[in-house]
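worker-3 :: picked Aminotransferase class I/classII large domain-containing protein
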Amino acid sequence: MSSWDFWVEEALSKLESLKLLRSLRPIITNQNHELQSNEESLQTFHNLNSWDRSSVEIQISEPTFQNWIQILPSSGDEIISIRDNGDSIIGGGGAQPQRLRKLVLFSGNDYLGLSSHPTVRKAAAEAVLKYGMGPRGSALICVYTSHHRLLESCLADLKKKEDCLLCPTGFAANMALMVALGSVGSLLPDGKKPLKNEKVVIFSDALNHASIIDGIRLADRQQVQIYVYKHCDMVHLNTLLSSCTLQKKVVVSDGLFSMDGDFAPIKELAELRKKHGFLLVIDDAHGTLVCGKNGGGVAEEFNCESDVDICVGTLSKAAGCQGGFIACSKKWKQLLQSRGRSFIFSTALPVPIAAAAHAAIVVGKKEKWRRKAIWRRVQDFQALTKIPITSPIISLVVGSEENALIASKHILESGFHVTAIRPPTVPANSCRLRVTLSAAHTIDDLLKLTTALSLCIKFKDIGVVTNFYKADGYYAKL
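worker-3 :: tokens ->
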């Protein structure tokens, strides 16, 4: 038994003695054998089809387009209705038809195009017709159904973990985990406040997602010590770990960083874990279903699944649905469902969303060609621009806000939805265009996009964006 297993058991024992241990009791919305056999009957396909385009093609109204071009604020309250002939009416009533602008989306997170997959749509439709939205309430009260349990089992299998806990969003999943981690230090058998050497200490990458940062801020109130290490800098992390005398160490990192598109050095993290015995937490929001032969994520891609203790993810990106999850051991799940406040006090996912997400995970695992397609698009973009990108998230840093807005305007006029990322999302003078690729994009899409980009960006001046921030920088301040 590892030290962390012992500490979690100790915390669970304390919760049980206080009668604070909470259980999940699934409500049966269907016969279990029917749900389980459903996985084999889910329809899959072997290449792109017409419906996949709806995941990367959007329309905006002409007034919205003009506001965007002129960098004017918009309340977003235009009422748009569509006539049978395809004309759009802005404002309703006797308003005159307005033109709709068609754009190819290069800024979304639907990496595999599963949001429009017929099997995913059918699963949601059948569930909503049969159950409506399902019972409403928190999972611990009345909204943990057999559909939710089936999705958890499917995700646990995908991540090669013993169990899994569903959360309403990926943000809520990280918040629940960080708060639960903090409780390990405060749930002592004797009921006393933790001594300094009994505190939990969290080491966080400087570029971790906001949900991790906010979760750590809440956990800090529960006697947690915090260190921020320079982005992907294993020498710095090793120095911090070596100088820390506390035992309950946790290292948390994004697997694939959402803004810069670079990977965590997960093999090096695994080696440091063996050396220092810390709990390794990976937020694999952008790697799940995208990386690895079976879509298991960044850990599967780098053959480090057994080295990751807890994996956080989301169903709103490559799965094309909604919700978050924490793949972990059964003991950790017990602690999370008893101490993770953003899980405990939130309404659970509606049954149709759980059904759709389960279908998306199954389809995403089986249709391996989608992963091959998105990585082929990564190679195509690199070949066309000579920019040494490493993932479907491409960060084109252009410097000032003015440069970013001018470039974004040009790309919009060229028919592509690519937004300028500006402060406070990124620090001053590191404004960028953030391009994301999808399996639903075609080579023709990329040819047209890169042609448009070449007219406002000098590709030779764009390099791989890594280690941009320092540990005492904008995002490091927890």
